[in-house]
Amino acid sequence: MCGFARPLAVPPRVGKEATRPNGDAFKLTGKYIGQRLQLIPVTHDESTFYKNDRRKVGWINTLVKPTPEAKGEGDSIMVSDFLVAHWGRLRLDDWEARLFFRAGKNRDGYFTNDELLAHVDNAIDIFESKTHKFATGLFLFDNAPSHQKRAADALSARKMPKGPHATWTNTANGPKMCPGRMADGSVQQLYWPAGHPTMPGWFKGMEQILRERGLYRNGMNAQCPGFKYANRAARFISAYSGGLNGEELAYVQRRYKGHRMLPQFMIDQVKASIAHIK
Question: CB 3.0–4.6 Å: which of 33, 53, 131, 189 could bond 135 by disulfide?
């Protein structure tokens, strides 16, 4: 679940103010002052269903003639929703958190992190309206792609050209990358200024960026061998630092492919699973 690797950034709220159903704010008094507001877990999950989903084996009458089946999975529909243990699906009257999404180039497009954020914003609005802000929602996600989401202008060496480039940005049609920081804390601009005589506004390229930092050596490759295995390497480092051995690490590679870092409960699960097999 998203967020397991670090403690909550904000501690549970302590009741001092609240909001009435009509939106008016008021002070809590008497026995409610200083009490912690209820923390309610809200889980998120999504499933994709295909038009041609069906059982492949079943009993039929001998008089029934075989019929041809459509090839391929067919059109799909994704259902994304939020669940609360005591309420079921997160909803308020006709206002629902559930989302239907028809993925495809000529349909609804693709469910990106932007769609997920809008989906979550709507769910939070429903939760706060339903609880009148007398509770705090703990939203839990099992969505590996969203773990990798960064700001559009975030620093990244992926696909960065070695030399200068007139139009390069980290994401297609996205903004320019934000400046970096030198070892002494000063700002390092990654693009030449607009007044540059030959490359106005161009991306400097990795070679120039490293030269400014005093790190460039002649003959350096733009990409190190095995760079595409960065996630796997991070998983190895995390597993070894958690005390796993080679046999346990092989199990990790099969079981937790979507994770770069392994929290302690996963490491404990791996050790328990290996011990059970033995």
Answer: 131
